[in-house]
Structures are given as structure tokens and as C-alpha cells.
Amino acid sequence: MSTKDPTSEVSQQAQRAAAALLQEAGIESIDLACTLGSGWGEAAEQLGELVAEISAEDIPGFRNSGVPGHSGSLKVIRAASGKHVLVIGARTHYYEDRGVDAVAHGVRTAAAAGAGVVVLTNGCGGLNPAWTPGAPVLIRDHLNLTGVSPLQGAHFVDLTDLYSPRIRGIARRVDPSLQEGVYAQLPGPHYETPAEISYLRTIGADLVGMSTALEAIAARAAGMEVFGISLVTNLAAGISDEPLSHQEVLEAGTAAAPRIAALLAQIITATLEES
Ligand code: 8IG
In this structure, what is the dihedral angle of CA atoms 252, 253, 256, 258, given to the nearest 10 degrees? Predict the structure, then answer.
């Protein structure tokens, strides 16, 4: 069963959600969708004019996020180009235990509403000691260490170049100092032990978090071009002497917010102009 198969259950759920969303917003389709992770919450304001803010509960399959620092709304924004951006503040994490379909529902809904591009943002731990909290890093590739796939059945999706080289190029034109890294998604919700971080460095991870990889796979399977960008909000366990706290994550996000919101808005604006 694939998302592209219009008869599949997950596809029907996404189509129902997309129909409700488009009706609430009073528009025909969306062009690009963006999920906002920890620290990225302010970006929506800079993207353009707010067309509609819809509570997650009003769209089938969405729920208010139970995670402090994550909003519970879906926003539709009209960019200066006239194109429509869906900003998904209500992301479901794998650790919320609602299953992989709930995790993938946001990107599938965006695809069903017409979005050809999805921008995935997150807050994460950094394994490179040179990346201090507050640094945005482009996702070049991922390690899906959740042990699961958002897809079911004989659906063999190519993930070579999953993270669009085209949009990464646009991002580096916006900010030539942007670095790239490999993002490892773990199930969470606990952070890692120093031994696990040491292992993750060995297998090629630069960034570690609890989102994005499963969504990226589902988005590619639904035919979307995927772009991912992380905000390093803390050094991963054992990289510094400090213990990890969600409070620290929120503070690093707040401090970096205006800067990274402007960066994200510029990347999305440039991507819309070139799509
Ligand atoms: I923000 O250090 C954030 N999310 N797994 N490890 C994992 N997830 C995270 C981390 C981290 N920081």
C-alpha cells in the first residue's frame, strides 16, 4: 500500500485533511509546506500575509502538540509571489506513540493539498564541537535509526539525494556560511548516553534528534522535493560537560529565533521564486 495509491487508507486520510484545510483557508491549493521544529517558531511571520490560522483539532488527523515549544496550529500564508505556504506547527513525533502514520500525516496532507516542496526544520543535538548552540545546519543526508519506516508494503522508494541538492544550493546562496551535516533520527524521547553519541559519530552522524527522517521518507514517497534544516540547540551528550535539558533547548531556540526565522524565510522565498 502506498501513499500514491489513492485507495489506500492513509492516502484517503490525507485527502480528507487536505480538503478540510483548503476549505478552511478558502484556497485552491498550497505550493510549499514547512514544519516548524524547536526554535523555528517565529519564521511564519516573515513569510508573507497570514491567510488563515487553523487549530490542529479542526483538521482530521492532526492534534495539538503535547510538546512545550511546539505550537498546535496550521497556518496558511500567502507569499509575495502569490504562492501559498502551509506552516505546520502541529507535528507528531514518533515518541508520542501514535504510530508512523500519524508522524507522516502532516507531509501527506501537504502533498494531497498540492505542495511540491516540503521544508522540514528541527531542533537537535550537535555532534560537531565547532557547531555551538544556535547554529543552523543544512541536512545533507540522514540515518533513520528508529527501526521503522513510514511506508508499508512493497514500496521501494529511492532515497539517493533525498535532501534536494537544488534547494541546498539555494540555501547556500542565501547564506554561504551554512554548513551541512548528516542527521540521525532516534526514537527518543530520552536523550542519548555519551557512549551512544560516540557510536553515532563513528557511523557518520553530525546531528541527532527525534524527528525529520521519517517525515522526509514519507514526503519523498508522496512525490515531494525535500529540504531539511536543523538548529543545533545543544551539544549532544558527552560532547560538552553540561547535562542536557529541554529548558536549555528552549533557551537556545529563543536566542536564535529572530536570526534563523529570517534565514528560513529567505530560503523559502527564493525556493518559491525558482519552483
Ligand atoms: I532539541 O541532543 C534536541 N533534540 N535525540 N538528542 C536527541 N534529540 C534532541 C537533542 C539531542 N536535542
Answer: -150
Number of Cβ within 10 Å of residue 273's Cβ equals 12
| Residue 258: predicted pLDDT | 87
| Among 197, 234, 240, 247, residue to substitute to test ligand 1 (most atoms within 8 Å of Cβ) | 234
pLDDT on residue 10: 87
Half-sphere exposure of 244 (CA within 13 A, CB side): 23
Pocket around ligand 1: residues whose beta carbon is below 6 Å from it? 38, 123-125, 186, 188, 191-192, 208-210, 233-234, 236, 244, 249
Atom index in ligand 1 nearest the CA of residue 38 equals: 1
Spacing, Cα 232 to ligand 1 middle (Å): 9
pLDDT digits 0-9 by tens, 242-260:
777 777 777 777 888 888 9
Domain regions of the chain by residue span? 6-274
Q: What is the mean pLDDT of residues 43-69?
A: 83
Candidates 3.30.70.260, 3.40.50.1580, 3.40.50.720, 3.90.220.20; correct CATH number of 6-274?
3.40.50.1580
9 is catalytic: no
Give the pLDDT score at 1.
45
Per-residue pLDDT tens over the stretch 122-179? 999 999 988 988 899 999 999 999 999 999 888 899 999 999 999 999 999 999 999 9
